[in-house]
Structures are given as structure tokens and as C-alpha cells.
Amino acid sequence: YDGRGVIVAVFDTGVDPGSAGLQVCPDGRRKIVDVIDCTGAGDVDTSHAAVAKDGQLKGLTGRTLTLPPSWPAGSKYQLGIKAAFELYPPGLSTRVKKERRKALDAAQRDAVEAVAKSLASKADESTAAGKRWAEELAQRKTVLDKLDKDFDDVGPIYDVLAYADEAGAWRVCVDTSEVGDLAACTLLAPYHLEHQYGTLDSTSMLNYAVDVLDDGRRVILTVDSG
Asked: Among the four residues 46, 74, 204, 207, which has the most C-beta atoms within 10 Å?
């Protein structure tokens, strides 16, 4: 007897649903039946309900969310918001912050150089327009210097939405584009139904699965927290 047909529950710091060694059993059946977050760290309050207008919704981040044409236009959407750093396992936040800071520093250098070149050209301050332009450049430099000194990276902030499709099954989308382009994001059903997962971004490479509770008023994002 090799244990076939027995469902085993494993309490651990997490499991990666994308792990190659955890996809199928030797007989072709799925290895992972479900993944469940028992910590509460993945909970998302999606009690805010809204109906799309002209294929768009206003997310709780303030971004305009553009729905793919295939999504139901008249459906009620449950909206929530989630900070990625609340999901990251220990050590990942530090690495992602370093990589994001590296990208920011490159953009910061370009912006500072552009302002410096404009200041070096010395606008004609004898005119009202020239004086305003010189003041504008000086203010830009002040803001850039302050940003470089005081920047505190809160990490990616995602809009999360859930809706029931025509068959009554819940679907969840995390706006991993961070610009409201939901067509570029992964639409998921609860993991135990379709065994699909998404990836937050190419930097963290953190995979996640979803579940929906309380009639859509709570979404759970489950990640490997080990």
C-alpha cells in the first residue's frame, strides 16, 4: 500500500502552487487539492460593491479599472485593496525594495540631470514668463532632492475585485498591472475549483491562489510565506 486515495493536510509556512514537483501524482491526478491561508495575512475586505459604467470601475486605490469586454457588463463587482508587502515572505520585501530602489535611482538621476541642464541654460528672468520658468525649475530640483532623501517604498498596492460569473462561480482579479489594465491580469476561480494560480510580478515571482468567502465580501490571497 502506497497511500493512494488518501488526502493529506499539511500545516506549513506555505506551499508554492506553481512548484513543478507538486503538480500531478504518478497516475496523473493533481497533487494539490487546495491551498488555504490560516494566518489572515491574505484576507482582503471586498465588501465595497460597485457596478461598471462604460466598461470601467473606480478602484479603491483611486485607479480607473478597465474591464475586458468578455466580463459581464451589468454584474456587481466586489472591490478591495491589498498591499503586496503584506503577502511577501521574510526577506522578499528587502530584495524587492532594493530592486525597486535601483530603478527609482535611475529615473531620479535622469530627472535631476534634465533639471540641471535646464537650470544651466539660464532662462531669461527679465520677462515674467522666464522668471516663472526659473522658479519652476528651482522647485522641481527641491522636490527631487526631497524625494531622494525621504522616499519610503510602501511597495506595490493592488486593486482586488471579485464577481460571480453567469454560472454563479466566483472569479477574482488582482490588478497586478497597477494601472487598471485588467485584461493584462490573471482571472482566477477559487483554487479548489480550477487549480489555477497567478504570479504577482516578475520581480517577486510570488505565486498566489485565491478563495472567496462571505458571498464575495472577502477574498483570500494565499502565498508561500516560508
From this structure: 46
